[in-house]
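Section 5.1 Outputs to date
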Amino acid sequence: MQCPSNSFRYNATQCECNPGYLFNFTSRICYLFDEWGPVESDSGVDYRSLSFPGSGALFDFDSIRRLTQSQAVFLEATLIMLLSWLCFCFFARCAPLGDGRSIWFKIRWWISRLDICFASRHWLDDQKVVMKRKTELGGTFSIASWILFIGLFAALLYHIIAKRAIEMHNVRATNAPDLAAFINDLEFNITTISSMSCLHLRGLGTVVTGNPGLIDYRFAPLSTFANYSCINTTKGPTIMLKCSRCPLSRDNAYISWQFVDLPNSPAAAAGFQFNLTATDPKNRKHVSLVSGTLRNGSHFDDKPVTFRGLTPNILKFNFFPRLYHNLNDLKLIQPLLHEFLPGSSFDEVSQLQASLERPNDGLINTTLYINFLSSYIVEIKDQNVMGPVSFLADVGGLYCVSIGLFFYILVQFQENAVPPNTKGRNPEDIVAPDVENALQAPAFPAANDVTVPPPPLLKLQAADHVSMTNLQKDLQNLYEYNMMLREKLIAAQSMLHSLAIKESTLAADNGDIITRE
């Protein structure tokens, strides 16, 4: 008989896979067992979903986290939207207006209407005489500031949801009532990764408690501790131990079993896979667990090995109680892998071949060691990192930064409405050219011999002393003065027109008198 690849012959007629290889009965080949991953544990409490008492999760934060790995995603999206908006407004500014009916004219008009941050009275001013030319800068920077604010606000919410609370752990000594209250459902699944089956199993049925060599060392039937069984899986035989409403014990527990040689089916394994869970019978929503895969126990190399021989493989687990005050005093036992002590194993073909030919090596010893850390209880509660006052302060700061940044840019654009010939002069000496001409013009006699009052002084400040409030006030005064001049000019024009008509009537009457004479 020819042995498959990655295998060798022993006892002249039998074949066995190389160290670290497993035999596939379907394809009849030996394949390398290379499944290896870190030991994973879960406390059973998920803090990453927002929920209300008595209801399911409002939304799962994991789904958001898969799409947005950090705040940088929100900031990048904000920057892209901001630049897109500014580029659109720039091209709209450069587009031809035509006769005032084109689409670009309407777009620019609506952009000017969007000035909701810096001049929010456009819609009211539409019902009045236009006092100043409308510009798109206010609308452009208003929307830009809101884009920036919304983006920063989204990043702030992400940070709050991700880091909204911290766990406060307190360790205290236990007493008898505390231990009696810790009752969990425990389940152990230990898979011996191999080509064996449950027919190879021997020696499962006894549990040892206490410390070896001391007076409290005891043997007891395994059925008094848990229900046990063995099932065949695609990876090998799995030992299942289930303990319903297990009390928290002060003793250590040892459970051992062996897999022995069968005709044409030796006892050999490439590794072990485990999965231990604990559940509170009163609240099965939370399940604490530890799981993983064990292969080579060496810290110096990662050679594939085959476990076989008299020295037992020991899987050590620590079980310690946790009391969650933030979850209605949930009592949950947390299992953790403490250590893996590998037993007899071989990484060379010649060594494994010699072991297969020795009858004394025809077994795999496995021991499950459970250490109940019942001397202390870990009490857990939450403490919020951010309160409502700090949240509102952060939101207000983001709004001020967003509005203030673009208001500063808007002021820089307006600092250029200052005439070039006023640079270098004192602020109090700067007067608008139109006002200077008006001051030099003689007073115009209006109706009822009322002299027109002099126009108000319009003082323009230097570039570094610009005040929007003073500028708007001066423009308002100048507008009112012009309106007053217009009214008096209309009155004077009406008076002159009346005088002209009266003079022509008198002249006609005088002509008629002279003719009759």
